[in-house]
Structures are given as C-alpha cells and as structure tokens.
Amino acid sequence: MKKRLAQDALAAGHLATLGLIGPFVLALLGVFVGFGIGFLLVLGIGLLFLALFAVCLPGVARFEELRVSGLYGFDLPPRALRRSPRTDWLRVPHTLWLQVTDGRNWLGLLHFLIITFLGGVALWLLGGVASYLVYAIRGSFAADPLMLPNSTLFPPTWAAALIGIGAILVCLAGVWGLTRAHRGISTAMLAPSRIHELERTVATETRRRDDAVSAASIERTRIERDLHDGVQPRLVSIGMTLGLARTKVESDPQAAIDLIDEAHTSTKAAMTELRQLARGFHPAVLEDRGLDAALSALAARSPIPVTLDVRAPHRYSAQVESAMYFAVAESITNIAKHSGATQCRVTVLERPGGMLWARIEDDGRGGARRVPGGGIDGISGRIAAAGGVLTLSSPVGGPTTIDVSLPCQA
Q1: For the chain, how big is the Rg over CA atoms in Å?
Q2: CB 64, CB 110: distance < 8 Å
Q3: Gap between the terminal Cα atoms of the chain
Q4: What residue ranges in 325-399 does DSSP mark as E strands?
C-alpha cells in the first residue's frame, strides 16, 4: 500500500513536471516542422529544421520510455538508434529518415503529447489544492466570513473551512485519477503485451537462427576453400613425391632419400597449415587465457602491423568471446588481403549497459561493402547470431571502420 501511494505521488510529480515543460518541448518541435515545411523551397533551409526534428524525435521517445520504465518498473525492450547501413554520403540523411519512419518514435511522441495534456490538468488541480488549502486555513481562524474564490457567496467561518477541505479532497481525487490514467495509457502504449513480447522473441530468435545458419554456411565455404587451395594441393604433392621416391629406391637411393626429405618437409608444412586452420575455429589460447591473450597472439601473427587496445576487465561467455575473436580475426584477414592498408588499429572495451564493443580501423583504400556470402557478410551473421550488431563504414578512399557490439551475457 505504501509503495503504491509513493508511486502515485511520484506519478503526480511527473505529471506536474510534464505539464510545465511539455508545452515548450512540443512547441519547439512544432516550430521545427513548421519552419522546415515553410522554408523547404528557400535554398533548402527547411531541411535543416526537419533534420533537427528528426534528431529530437527519437530523443523524446527514448525519454518517455526511460521515464515510464523507471516510474512503473516496466520491462521495456532496449533499442538502439536505427543507423543506416550505407557507407556513402547518404548515410546521415538515411539515418535521419529511419528515425522519422520508426513507428516507436511516433508512439513515444504521441504518449508525450497525451501525458503533457494530463499534466496540464494535474497542474490546474494542484493549484486548486493550494488555493483551497489557504482558503480552509483562513476560514478556520478568521473572525469574519470568507468569500469563496471567484464567488459572491459569504458562508460562515466553519462552512468555509468545510468547503475548503472538501474542495481539496475533490482536487486530490482528480489528481489520483490522472495518475491512474497515466499508468493505464503508458501500459497500453509503451509496455509490451505478452503476445507482442512472445512475437518479438520468436522473431528475434528466428532471425538469430537464420544468421547462425548463414554464418555457418559461409564458414564452411571458407574452410572448404582453404582446404582446397592450401592443404589439399600440398597433400597431393606429398603423395606424388613419395610415389616418385618409391620408383627410385633401387635405381637411385640418394634421389629417393632427397625426395623423402622433401615429402617430410611438405608434411610438416601441411601440419602447420592444418594447425592454423584449426586455430581459426576456436584457438586454445582463447579458451585458456581469454580474449586479450587470443587477440594479442592474433596481432602478432598479422601480416600488417596491428595496434591493439583491449580493456576487457573479466572473462565473458564462450559464445561472446568466440564471436568477437572471429570478427576481429576475419576483419584483419580481409584488411590484409583486400584493403591495401599499411596498418590497422583494434580497440576492444566493455561499455556501460553490458555491451562488449570493438572497433577495427585501417588506412586502406576503402570501398568495402557487405556482399552475400562474402567475408563481411560472414562476420555480420556470426555477430547477429550472438545477439550483436555490426556497423560498417567504408567510403571510397578510406578509411574503413567496423564497429561490433555484443551483449556481454549473450
């Protein structure tokens, strides 16, 4: 009971605050839209105002989600700012357009508008509480009759006190009703229903499953390519060398010994390639010593100089560490093969909110893009399967930047 009363009192405070500041925020947004449309044909000045509106829109929606979540304890699903996957000059305009076309942003703005109106009514009622409180106090102690606010009636002193107390109770009841309305509206508009939550979970898991299948298919293709282009020809060569040595055992023993030595050397090289290929799946150092040590070993083997900055304070789940290692390893491989870069920088750190973040940068020629079945597509699928997000920025001329975010508890 005490908790509910405290929550209602806090909700009343929220309403009063929004009743004060809400009209100014809505007026500002209206100015942005009005000026944006009005000056759209004047040297494109209106686009600046529309861009400001697109920036503020998700901010208002996110403010409402955080406010309602903190007030009522709703488990609202987290959401990141929608970003454009483009890498050209249209990336920023496309990102702004994604904010305007996001239905959740408009729903948050509508919620802000409704609660601001309720806040205005709550302010009026709270003002009535203050007025009638003064009226009741003065009516209780004054020797002369008191006049009701905005009235020509002159009740007796005791009647003035009773009327003031009654009016206060009516105003407080109105404020309490508004807090109930606030909770109901927020529940209906922002809090996900059980069915919606299940649908969202199913959609998320389906997408992660598809990404995992796609990533596994790309990884299998890569393994087949590495085996076909590297180890398989070497093993065939070893077999041919040993066959030739067998024919020379009796006629030219020394040549046979030389061929066997050559086959032995090729066998050790094949074992090294197989060991490196197996290390690419899940290196032992990653399991034994963690992400920092595994990435350090990876940077040491890189054909281009890699500056590594890892600030991961503790160990993470095997899925998270494996996905992050794979993303960095495959990115460095792609940089070495295709970018023409002379150096690479890798930064890994844990961000507030339980996210493990990495950025891989190079000074190459740029122009990288995600192609179905390609290396970047494989990295993105592996990260998405672990519940993370990959963002690529690679304008022509460089530099190329890959940002990877993974939930630490995935």
Answers
A1: 34
A2: no
A3: 37
A4: 344-351, 355-362, 389-393
